[in-house]
Design a protein that fits this description.
The protein is α/β, with parallel strands linked by helices and about 150 residues long. It has five helices and seven strands; from the N terminus they run E-H-H-E-H-E-E-E-E-E-H-H. The longest helix has 9 residues. About 20% of the residues are buried.
């Protein structure tokens, strides 16, 4: 991440697949980026959309190897698109972080999207997926059969 005449501070809100994957095109460019990913949960977790994807530790490890700073357990409380900055609530109190660019990858109820576009714009929810786990032991006695 060197060889560029300029440097950018970037905050990515959301440590899911989209947030952790945001570093890939940035890391492959010639510019100098300092990226911080903010995740509200205390550890990597499989929450959010039901994507069939590799465990989050894989993009997490890749991001860390390329110098991305990942901060856990910081709930995004406000976003100011004019500075730009975000405020996060941690066990040590509230902290305001400023950057040149904020990338919102904080899910369906995105505080970043709301700060930029307002409350009235939400992604449409035309379909709902239910997620469940079925132990393999219960499926083995009844193998799938072709009709």
């Amino acid at each position: 991440m060197s060889g560029s005449p300029f440097s950018l501070e970037i905050i990515v809100t959301g440590g899911g697949l989209a947030g952790l994957g945001a570093y890939i095109p940035l890391a492959l460019s010639n510019a100098s980026y300092h990226i911080t990913v903010l995740e509200r949960t205390p550890t990597l977790q499989a929450i959010g959309s039901a994507l069939l994807a590799p465990p989050q530790r894989i993009p997490y490890e890749g991001a860390v190897e390329l110098g991305v700073k990942v901060r856990f357990d910081g709930k995004l409380t406000t976003t100011d698109s004019t500075k730009p900055s975000v405020a996060i609530s941690t066990s040590n109190g509230e902290e305001v972080l400023e950057a040149d660019l904020i990338i919102g990858a904080d899910g369906a109820n995105s505080k970043v999207r709301t700060a930029v576009l307002g409350n009235e714009i939400k992604p449409p929810v035309d379909e709902i997926a239910y997620i469940c786990s079925i132990p393999g032991s219960t499926m083995i006695p009844t193998p799938l059969q072709h009709p």
